[in-house]
């Protein structure tokens, strides 16, 4: 049944959902179109997009390739059907029972009936409880990096979809702010707490994070720096999504630097944290905005990174990792303070440097 245009417009206005539209078969859908229409973005969003140099502030987070496209299932249930991820039908939060998905609208209901059934959008920002099906492993029980990255992208898409419910007091302007492990835990139904200390392991190493999958709890140590807490939290989210663990699992401090020996379980969780906190498209876009091609020429790099031609700094810049570190942590250009790439993504300079190398963004010096 095709929904009348006036109902589509009315639903968009009521739900503040610019993605309500008629699908290719003429049916009503509240799924995200394959391409954003700039006319469907409100003025504030368009202004933000213009300031950041692309059409929509969350375009990169919402971008989907053919193999991870989020589609609405054909049944009456309006929850997004996400490959490798699903919503627990028996454990949905109260506000979502009865098909009250804030991204789907029953076109034959008037506004009063919808609001009386589900409450106002802001007052009932309940979330569906997300669970991932077991990821594909090889003969040794290992998950490929490709599948890990895909799982991280899928989680990012769900956060993007439910950003207004996750941030009821206002969605952050910066898409990088949505890469929030604590919000991911919220979607997964976990309770997160921060402790002054979580004890020690291996004699004298402070525990940075603990996850208990049986009771859906995660704990973070406040002894750690913000970037270590953030990376450790994302690492624990990786465990929650990918690994079948029971009992308490304790982790050492993690900053994404890749130091120290790890078994494949820990390595997989670390790669998940990298892909979630530093998604390829968003990092590449921010890097290219900060460092256009002409700025990456040697003379210009030397001007912004080593104007005094210090020999020690020059030697460090001559290595790919040294140059990556300098670009990842650069917080001043021509005397003007800027947020470094590592600060924008709330990771350590070393983690960002490694990611820039992985994405082949570091030029020859």
Automatic annotation (TrEMBL):
Pfam family membership, one: Peptidase_M78
Coiled-coil regions, chain positions: none
All copies of domain IrrE N-terminal-like, residue ranges: 223-351
Name of the featured protein: ImmA/IrrE family metallo-endopeptidase
């Amino acid at each position: 049944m095709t929904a009348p245009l006036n109902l589509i417009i009315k639903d968009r206005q009521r739900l503040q959902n610019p993605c309500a539209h008629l699908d290719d078969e003429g049916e009503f859908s509240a799924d995200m179109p394959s391409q954003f229409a700039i006319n469907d973005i409100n003025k504030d969003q368009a202004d933000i997009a213009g300031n950041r140099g692309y059409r929509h502030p969350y375009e990169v987070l919402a971008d989907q390739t053919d193999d991870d496209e989020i589609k609405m299932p054909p049944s009456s249930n309006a929850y997004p059907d996400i490959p490798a991820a699903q919503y627990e039908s028996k454990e949905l939060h109260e506000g979502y029972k009865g098909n009250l998905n804030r991204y789907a609208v029953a076109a034959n209901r008037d506004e009063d009936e919808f609001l009386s059934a589900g409450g106002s959008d802001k007052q009932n920002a309940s979330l569906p409880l997300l669970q991932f099906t077991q990821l594909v492993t090889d003969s040794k029980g290992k998950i490929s990096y490709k599948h890990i990255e895909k799982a991280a992208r899928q989680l990012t898409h769900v956060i993007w979809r439910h950003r207004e419910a996750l941030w009821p007091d206002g969605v952050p302007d910066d898409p990088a702010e949505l890469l929030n492990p604590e919000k991911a835990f919220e979607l997964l139904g976990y309770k997160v707490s921060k402790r002054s200390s979580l004890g020690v392991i291996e004699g004298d190493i402070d525990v940075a994070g603990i996850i208990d999958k049986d009771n859906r709890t995660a704990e973070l140590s406040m002894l750690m720096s913000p970037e270590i807490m953030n990376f450790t939290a994302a690492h624990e989210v990786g465990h929650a999504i990918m690994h079948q663990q029971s009992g308490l699992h304790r982790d050492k401090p993690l900053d994404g630097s890749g130091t120290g020996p790890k078994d494949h379980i820990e390595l997989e969780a670390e790669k998940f944290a990298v892909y979630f906190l530093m998604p390829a498209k968003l990092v590449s876009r921010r890097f290219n905005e900060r460092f256009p091609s002409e700025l990456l020429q040697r003379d210009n790099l030397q001007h912004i990174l080593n104007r005094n031609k210090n020999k020690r700094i020059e030697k460090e810049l001559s290595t790919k990792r040294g140059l990556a570190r300098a670009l990842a942590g650069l917080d001043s250009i021509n005397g003007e303070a800027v947020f470094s790439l590592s600060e924008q993504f709330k990771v350590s300079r070393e983690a960002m440097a490694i990611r820039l190398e992985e994405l082949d963004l570091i030029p020859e010096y």
